[in-house]
């Protein structure tokens, strides 16, 4: 089935006549055309891509089969009711996670006689399970990131700043074929590495841990990985901390599979860390989904419902960490593809402790 057919299938399950997509990611997912300012309307019988003059030519060229490309000549509050009436839409799903209250209020007023229904779960249900072509793009992005990391490690010098390391890594990913970076690259050293999402500073690299959290995109799909290396020589305490994080990570990767509990996967890693002197130093979730957004469903955390299970087709990160406030921190992150009866680690970068 095509993506359009699958979306319509989810619409039928939710009992809605149409869905109006306003987020860039769901727009791209549905019609395969990347337009950050466009909208998509999918009804039972017809589907439309709305694009202005800047994007209309590309939309006609790139929108998936089954979509009519339209360049509206009227404001949204006028053309959307017309297309809803044309397709006898009585219930219109909207993205409550994306649409502002002002936008919602304006459409509700314009769409008299049409019930607007929160319907983010329609797209979430589709996007949480990756198709073969989506996995292929995520893997391609990951390979670009891995090659960039390998090259970067041969370029790092002690007099570089954290900002320079981050910029160099981003340059290498783009030069290696990335459409873009997945998010603002994290390159934090020494005492700054104790912040899980620390911001690279314009200061020279501190001796000790250097945590690199980064990713590339290919056709809109993200990769995500973290590796922690050492500037200089690692102390025995640093080696102990690193090996504790590595044990927590590999222990999950060894058992993660279709049908595993999201909560239990987090608990495995957390229990290992909390059984050591670093109890309480792993303060974030174990992992999250990756796709057209760098953070999407599903999540693996202490807050995950007890009955939530992993399903074949999902891609999740496994990224435990230990952060000792004011001293240093370490995180190791891989992406894992859940497959029938098992899982495949999509990350090939080495995990032995590297001293530079």
Task: Describe the structure using short key phrases.
single chain, 356 residues, alpha+beta, Creatine Amidinohydrolase, Chain A, domain 1, Creatine Amidinohydrolase, 2 domains, 6-stranded mixed β-sheet, 3-stranded antiparallel β-sheet, 10 helices, 19 strands, elongated
Describe the structure.
The chain is an alpha+beta fold and 356 residues long. It has two domains: 125 residues, 3-Layer(aba) Sandwich (Creatine Amidinohydrolase, Chain A, domain 1); 214 residues, Creatinase/methionine aminopeptidase superfamily (Creatine Amidinohydrolase), CATH 3.90.230. It is built from ten helices and 19 strands. It has a six-stranded mixed β-sheet with strand order 4-3-2-1-5-6. It has a three-stranded antiparallel β-sheet with strand order 7-10-11. A three-stranded antiparallel β-sheet has the order 8-9-12, with helices on one face. A hairpin with a 2-residue loop joins strand 10 and strand 11. Helix 1 crosses helix 6, helix 7 packs across helix 8 and helix 9 packs antiparallel against helix 10. The longest helix has 22 residues. It starts with a helix and ends in an 11-residue tail after the last strand. The model has no long low-confidence stretch (mean pLDDT 97).
């Amino acid at each position: 089935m095509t993506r359009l057919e699958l979306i319509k299938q989810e619409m039928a399950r939710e009992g809605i006549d149409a869905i109006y997509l306003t987020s860039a990611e769901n727009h791209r997912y549905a019609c395969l055309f990347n337009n950050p300012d466009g909208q998509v309307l999918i009804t039972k019988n017809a589907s439309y891509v709305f694009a202005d003059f800047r994007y209309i030519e590309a939309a006609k060229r790139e929108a998936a089969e089954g979509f009519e490309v339209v360049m509206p000549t009227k404001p949204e509050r006028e053309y959307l009711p017309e297309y809803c009436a044309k397709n006898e839409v009585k219930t219109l799903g909207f993205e409550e996670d994306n649409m502002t209250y002002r936008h919602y209020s304006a459409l509700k007023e314009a769409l008299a006689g049409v019930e607007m229904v929160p319907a983010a779960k329609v797209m979430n249900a589709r996007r949480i399970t990756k198709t073969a072509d989506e996995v292929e793009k995520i893997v391609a992005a990951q390979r670009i990131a891995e090659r960039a990391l390998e090259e970067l490690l041969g370029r790092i010098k002690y007099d570089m700043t954290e900002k320079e390391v981050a910029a160099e890594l981003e340059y290498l990913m783009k030069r290696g074929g990335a459409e873009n970076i997945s998010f603002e690259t994290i390159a934090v050293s020494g005492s700054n590495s104790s912040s899980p999402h620390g911001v690279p500073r314009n200061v020279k690299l501190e001796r000790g841990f250097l945590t690199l959290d980064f990713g590339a995109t290919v056709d809109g799909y993200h990769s995500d990985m973290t590796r922690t290396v050492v500037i200089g020589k690692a102390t025995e305490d640093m080696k102990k901390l690193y090996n504790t994080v590595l044990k927590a990570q590999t222990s999950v990767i060894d058992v993660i599979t279709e049908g595993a509990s999201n909560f239990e996967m987090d608990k495995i890693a957390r229990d290992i860390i909390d059984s050591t002197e670093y109890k309480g130093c792993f303060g974030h979730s174990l992992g999250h989904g990756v796709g057209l957004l760098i953070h999407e469903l599903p999540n693996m955390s202490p807050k995950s419902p007890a009955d939530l299970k992993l399903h074949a087709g999902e891609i999740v990160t496994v990224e435990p960490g230990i952060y000792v406030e004011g001293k240093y921190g370490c995180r190791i992150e891989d992406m894992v593809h859940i497959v029938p009866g098992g899982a495949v680690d999509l990350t090939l970068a080495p995990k032995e402790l590297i001293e530079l």
